[in-house]
Amino acid sequence: MYRLSRALLGALARAPPLRQAPGPGRLLPAALRLGSPGGLSTRPRREPPAAPQRPAAQGPGSEEEPFVFPEYVPEPPPAPAREPPAAPSRPERRPREKRQHRVTGRPDPSVPPSGVSCSGCGAELHCQDPAVPGYLPSEKYRRLMGGQPGGSEGQGALGGSEGLGGQGALGGSEGLGGQGALGGSEGLGVQGVLGGSEGLGGQGALGGSEGLGVQGVLGGSEGLGGQGALGRSEAHRALQGVVCQRCWLLVHHQQALHMQVSREQYRNLVSAALRSPPRHGRCPLVLYMVDMLDLPDSVLQDLPQLVGAGSNILVVGNKVDLLPGDSPDYLKRFRKQLLRSCARVGILPAVQGSGGQVGRTGSQNLVDVHLISAKTGYGVEKLISKLQRSWKCNGDVYLVGATNSGKSTLFNTLLQSDYCKSKAPEVINRATISPWPGTTLNLLKFPIINPTSDRLFRRQERLKADAEKTEEQLSDDEQKYLKCLKKQGYLIGRVGRTFQQQKSKTVIDFDPDELSFNMEEEPVFSSNKPKERVEFTYNELKDARWFFDTPGIVKENCVLNLLTEKEVKLVLPTHAIVPRTFVLKPGMVLFLGALGRIDYLQGAKSSWFSVVASNLLPVHVTTLEKADSIYQKHAGKTLLKVPMGGEERMKEFPPLIPQEITLEGIGTLEAVADIKLSSAGWVAITAHLEDKLQLRAYTPEGTTLMIRKPPLLPHIIDIKGNRIRGSACYRTKKPPPLVENLKANGTNKQI
Q1: In this structure, are 488 and 446 located in the same domain?
Q2: 203, 228, 439, 528: which is deepest, by most CB within 10 A?
Q3: Residue 76, strand partner residues
Q4: Is 518 a member of any domain?
Q5: What H or E segment, with its residue span, contains residue 659?
Q6: 444-448, 651-655, 722-726: which has the minimum mean pLDDT?
Q7: Distance of CA 264 to the CA centre of its chain
Q8: Boundaries of each G domain copy (predicted)?
């Protein structure tokens, strides 16, 4: 075996060298270097210079062959695979901002106003000036009018012989009532748009026999000069149910257009309606709506002068569903606060004297006070019962209040209730609702149902049956709607209808000739026939009493007047408010966005600051040394959020003005006062007993800052969770919602 291996190795040594270049991983012969440290080298070694060859001895025994050892040359690591050229990297997708809807169309000053009211805000429809309420682009206006916006004076598409043609186009001498209650031809000075021709002219400030119309449905025999029992004209038929450009943008694009309507024009329109001569022999009832979140600023100081002497006023406190209950009797406390605020402006309840006679303590008669939620329906059924039992159908009812108090929401809720005629929801369109102040620009109305004894009895039977139902017995749609309301408010009500218009059975028109076609013809499907609109008859409305929704009175010194439409959505709360409580030491500062600031300057101990504001409005707590720099750096940006728009926005925003405040604590279980930062919200201060606090509060220049004593929610300190470790903030706690007119079960409590 040894000789065989020696022979093989010798033959391998004598073989001619391979021409192929040695590649990686090949076995190459290498002489074993004796005496080398490792014995085996994998490195290429230098060959010594060749020695002179000696003649080899002949014979098998005389040949001496060197011993070779196969050396392994390591294979180099594989080269990295060449990646295909990378596609150009796409930029990260940023959240797509909602683009503002572009307003298109052109005005045409040569076309006279239509005399028809917008079904959303009540302004007269026209195409003359985009800055005037009720504007429609001239292209759409002509298309709706069938290309004949002017008409002739005899029959005329805009109102017949004397309605809106000729010299009476803006409510002049022959058009709609001569001098009228709103001052002649120009109405309120805005080309008659806010009441001129159709608004409040004519006889007795109500435009002839039915001068105000049912949002363009009625109009009266002289008011719109048409033909037929209701004075219908071609303009009313063409523009019936149409909304103006402003209402369309508010509803579908949440975009507000600024209108050239002053506060005095709003006041004049409302005052003229309320001071008009009594219809049906009795003064109207004023349903005055107050925003409980903005109390007492939402009670207008000049309300007595606005409604006139001897008026009957029923005060309604709205948005109670947004405030959490801090004690079992908190609604009674709300009612007392509302009565106290009304008494400050001179609206006092009637006093019953000796002999049972009712005397008046002021120039106005406060009939009653109700707390409701126009959005969730809480308290609305009780309000309807009160109106039908006490006021009945004795006269008209006017809904009056400041902007953003919820009047249009209540108007729409009552339109779907037992307070209006059963046919009214199908005839009258719903009012436009928006957080932007001053959405309603003119009077909207619906006819009130006559509450006869039979109708009252049937209504009470329905209310009793509804009160016996549990949530599981409601339909799937009602349960879904109720679940949605529970997320939005603390108090929920169910507004139903007893008297509904019987819907006629649907008749399917079948024409076999329209369905027959041959192979050479393609089927042609006729377009849907226009839906016939339900209308009132003359007998149904000749003696009707009306419920009017009036434009909101713009509040002075309100922070909402300084904000854009996006900022207003963040500041005005639309869901149940969750209080946020912080414990502050002297030398700390609390920011409510960039709209308000409270400095805790001096005090013996820590105090609690409970913020009651929109859940979208951020609260930031810092030290007094850092407060100014934080405001300069973050005002208009993400941290403080409102206002928004960066440095450019803050240049035009008014600066914060300070006001010194001194309070004395009454205990750790009850707040001593509310610091109300205009309409942005308020901060309830709770301090230790007899602890004197020195505070400094800031609000934007031109807005109102007030101290409310007693506070609206004195026990708000109880509506908080545990304190977050290492922070001045407490965990929030949201009380459970309560449902009215629903039988109590395991998860719901009866109110």
Answers
A1: yes
A2: 439
A3: none
A4: no
A5: strand 656-664
A6: 444-448
A7: 27
A8: 397-448
Q: 597 is in which domain, residue-wise?
A: 559-735
- Are 255 and 266 contained in the same domain? no
Whether the per-residue pLDDT at 600 is higher than 60: the answer is: yes
pLDDT at 238: 67
Distances, alpha carbon 320 to alpha carbons 2, 10, 258, 372, 674, in Å: 110, 110, 30, 6, 17
Structure tokens at 170: 């803006």
E strands, 49-149, are: 68-72
pLDDT > 90: what percent of the chain? 39
96 assigned to some structural domain: no
Q: Using DSSP, state whether 240 is helix, strand or coil.
A: coil
| Amino acid at site 357 | Q
Closest CA to 563 of 677, 658, 657, 649: 649
CATH number of 473's domain: 3.40.50.300
Higher pLDDT, 264 or 391: 391
Q: What is the pLDDT of residue 670?
A: 95
On the question of pLDDT at 355 being above 90, the answer is no
pLDDT value at position 449?
A: 92
Question: Could you give the 3-state DSSP secondary structure of residue 58?
Answer: coil
Query: Which of 414, 421, 438, 118 lies closest to 287 in space, CA to CA?
Result: 414
Same domain? For 333 and 386 the reply is: yes
Task: Examine the domain organization and report whether 253 and 329 are in the same domain.
Answer: no
Question: Alpha-carbon distance 303 to 229, whole Å?
Answer: 39
To 5 degrees, how large is the angle CA 643–CA 648–CA 649?
Answer: 20
Non-local (6+) Cβ contacts of 300 within 8 A are 306, 345, 402, 553, 555
The reply to whether 465 falls in a domain is yes
Instruction: Answer whether 624's CB lies under 8 Å from 658's CB.
Output: no
What six digits make up the tokens of 739? 């449902």
If one compares 535 and 455, the residue with the highest pLDDT of the two is 455
Q: Mark whether 545 and 609 lie in a shared domain.
A: no
Minimal CA–CA distance to 337: which of 298, 374, 296?
A: 296
pTM of the model: 0.69
Per-residue pLDDT of 695-746, as tens digits, reads 999 999 999 999 999 999 999 999 999 999 999 999 999 999 999 988 876 4
Residue whose C-alpha is closest to residue 544's, from 250, 320, 306, 209: 209
Tell me the C-alpha distance between 55 and 222, whole Å. Answer: 145
Residue listed under structure tokens 């298309």: 143
Region 634-639 average pLDDT: 93
Residue 314 pairs in a beta bridge with: 287, 368
Strands of 202-323, DSSP E: 285-291, 312-318
With beta carbons less than 8 A apart as the criterion, state whether 335 and 317 touch: yes
Which tokens sit at 6?
Answer: 């020696």
Same domain membership, residue 252 and residue 320:
no
Dist. CA 572–CA 322, nearest whole Å: 11
Total number of domains constituting the chain: 3
Number of residues assigned to the chain: 751
* In contact, 680 and 561? CB cutoff 8 Å: no
Q: Which one-letter DSSP state was computed for residue 436?
A: S
The answer on 280 and 381 residing in a single domain is: yes
DSSP string of 600-644?
EEE-SS-EEEEEEE-TTS-EEEEEHHHHHHHHHHHTTSTTT-SS-
Q: Does 215 reside within a domain?
A: no
Region of poorest pLDDT, from 109-113, 229-233, 356-360, 710-714: 229-233
CA–CA separation, 471 and 483 (whole Å): 10
DSSP state of 104: -
Nearest residue to 198 (alpha-carbon basis) of 227, 171, 236, 162: 171
Do 637 and 691 share a domain, yes or no? yes
**Which among 18-32, 174-188, 312-326, 515-529 has the top mean pLDDT?**
312-326
Question: How is 282-312 classified by DSSP, letter by letter?
Answer: BPPEEEEEEEGGGTTTTS-TTHHHHH-TT-E
